[in-house]
Design a protein that fits this description.
Structural class: mainly alpha
Number of helices: 7
Oligomer: single chain
Strand content: under 5%
Radius of gyration: 16 Å
Number of strands: 2
Distance between the termini: 38 Å
Shape: globular
Largest sheet: 2 strands, antiparallel
Length: 194
């Protein structure tokens, strides 16, 4: 399956989980240590818009990537941003251009979309865990992401403070694929709010 289709499915799965978020949960913690659920959702909305702009070949200010506070309907905001990203990635010529990602550089379209895919698959997991739901991404999505993430370097530019990912969390080699994926992305599979 191609990366644009994988990404669209990850966005759809994340949208389903985001739709379950209730206002009283927005101030709660997430597996992303620096973010409340509201902060995580704002990040997700902003990065969808940033990636969409990059896919269209637009130069946008950093403020687009940093985002703004959530409005009254976070699920609708997320849905609109997810639709924008999916449409931009699927547009003719998008994968042929390099996409500029702030702080990381310019990447070939398929590589940039693979970063987005992994990000939204794991952030869907983050949101599900934050609201006490059972994360249920498709097994093929998890396997595709695990294959990609297992190649990510273990360097300070990629993992640790100020980097895109936290340091790896040790997970047994025989753990389920989803647990191994979240461990590689710096999350404890057993994380729970409170």
């Amino acid at each position: 399956m191609d990366i644009v289709s994988l990404d669209a499915r990850a966005l759809a799965a994340a949208s389903q989980v985001v739709a379950r978020v209730r206002p009283g949960q927005l101030a709660g913690p997430t597996p992303c240590r620096d973010w409340t659920l509201a902060g995580l959702l704002a990040h997700m909305v902003a990065h969808n818009h940033g990636f969409a702009a990059a896919a269209r070949g637009e130069q946008v200010p950093a403020s687009v990537w940093e985002g703004a506070p959530l409005g009254a309907d976070p699920a609708a905001q997320f849905g609109e941003s997810a639709d924008a990203a999916a449409a931009a990635f699927a547009a003719a010529g998008a994968l042929e251009r390099k996409m500029e990602l702030p702080g990381l550089g310019a990447f070939p379209g398929p590589v940039a979309v693979s970063f987005h895919f992994v990000d939204y698959l794991i952030h869907g997991w983050d949101v599900a865990k934050a609201i006490g739901a059972v994360p249920e991404p498709g097994a093929d999505l998890v396997q595709a992401a695990l294959k990609m993430v297992s190649r990510y370097p273990d360097t300070p530019q990629v993992r640790g403070p100020g980097a895109p990912f936290a340091a790896k969390v040790a997970v047994p080699d025989d753990a389920p694929p989803l647990d191994r994926l979240v461990g590689l992305l710096g999350r404890a599979p057993s994380w729970a709010p409170g």
